[in-house]
């Protein structure tokens, strides 16, 4: 047999790209090449198939036992077996292997993380528009919970800049009790997703959408901190409104705060790049230099706080308000939310969520995306259990809401510091939690001398590096279509709102997936057997699902009419079809019946055993072709039948004319 390409309907899928090398090489009908030789390149370009379960051995007919006793035993093992318990409590895996060497490494990492975490907690509380002590209270619960339930050894759970800015937008004009309820809501949704093993949901947010949202959130945070860096005082929310208010009030800038923030930014940027600068100069970077670079936030806060304390008599700087000392109060999250701006009390469920319903999706989605992204980044060759991390994040927020916490998740900066400091197990987070509790208990009164301008500098230098414009160039070179979700997410996040930008990006990502599912790559080829019997070969590059059923029907009808004048046999190459749902199968069966009524055949070639089980509704087994020889035999036999039927019709016609 020989084949020549007629038409290729592609949606830039992997399979269609893999076949791209064959598109230019249409095989001449006179070339005499066999089907086997002409399809060698297709076999080579096709990705290897991975069979799961019964598909590993197609020739072996395994009949599963569906008896109630067996099913109950399987469910019991999955829920209560040792492996299930070990998976739900990852602490059981690493505690038996814990050593004093690992303990020493975890203690050193915990001290470094604590020094970084305390000023960040205060800073993120400012972003979330809650009292500074709430930021400190949010730094220890997640550490303890992740110690028991977390599967990623180096992740540190605490407040983050993105969740803080989102919390401030959702709780605008409300007191901190609304933030606490938002923490509980985030925890309940995250925990539920983890329990039902829905960790894959975060994969529906594409890299461009994630990058655009992160960049927009970073720019929004930087704009909100301009007020503190300049010593201004005004009420404004959102990127545009804050910039307008800053420009309108620029003449009221407090010069001591401005000078202090500039000096802090210069020191922070210099210390961040100090190891690289010394490396460029040929100087060996020792552990002390690395520690100074890692602990730069704490150093700047300590230095500026000492400076403010020294000038406490004249106090030229704007400082953090007085912080409550002692441990956080324990109690049920409040359902009644008070609004100081409106002097009115609202119910969180019936009033607040009715206006801010997107918080149910956006807050947990962002929390899980941050947590799992940083966990995978530092996992190396280990597998991160996304669902278990969801459980850990959910419990951290649920328990944290009883301690008046703001929403928390895995922190990019703290986890990076933890990993760079040599943390070996989740015990480093547990030790960090104890150190934070000690600091809250004994050092809280001294935090009131921290200048707001230095905290603003810490925040700006922490989030500005989250803006990644390099991805725009990469998308422009590789795939320009990805610029659409990036641009829309960034613009809507900046000029409308972060929650709307996140939802827009999520919907665009899902729309892209649905479009690719509804428009599979289809290649139409004209084929010839060794006996010169002509047929049409249809190659599909992916499995059959209901969104693509109508499109595939349209392509097959079009190929039959335009390439074969509704006379040639259609051969569907099912090499890449691993799965087909009921709607797609029913549509294919209906099409086979339609072709049968008009005297055409549809043959299914290279059908996998998994697909044959789904196609068992097809009555005529001759529609499923087992091998290439079988295919040639059916095509030639069908052609002979057509020729004999034409001969009979001609003879009958001639006989009728003779009688007349």
How does this structure look, described?
This protein is of the alpha/beta class. The chain is built from 30 helices and ten strands. The protein has helices at 14-18, 35-38, 40-45, 68-80, 82-88, 91-94, 100-127, 132-137, 141-149, 161-170, 176-195, 207-230, 239-248, 255-272, 274-280, 287-294, 296-310, 348-355, 359-377, 386-401, 412-420, 427-442, 452-463, 470-478, 483-495, 498-518, 549-564, 582-597, 609-614, 628-659, and strands spanning 2-9, 157-158, 336-339, 344-347, 409-410, 522-528, 534-540, 569-573, 602-605, 624-625. It has a six-stranded mixed beta sheet. A two-stranded antiparallel ribbon has the order 2-5. It has a two-stranded antiparallel sheet with strand order 3-4. The protein starts with a strand and ends with a helix. Mean pLDDT is 79; it is low at 11-63 and 649-658.
Mean pLDDT: 79
Beta-strand percent range: 5-15%
Structural class: alpha/beta
Kindly state the number of beta strands: 10
Tell the overall outline: elongated
Terminus-to-terminus distance = 45 Å
Query: Low-confidence spans: pLDDT under 50, at least 5 residues?
Result: 11-63, 649-658
Strand order of the largest sheet: 1-6-7-8-9-10
Radius of gyration (CA) equals: 33 Å
Number of helices: 30
Major pleated sheet: 6 strands, mixed
Helix content: 55-70%
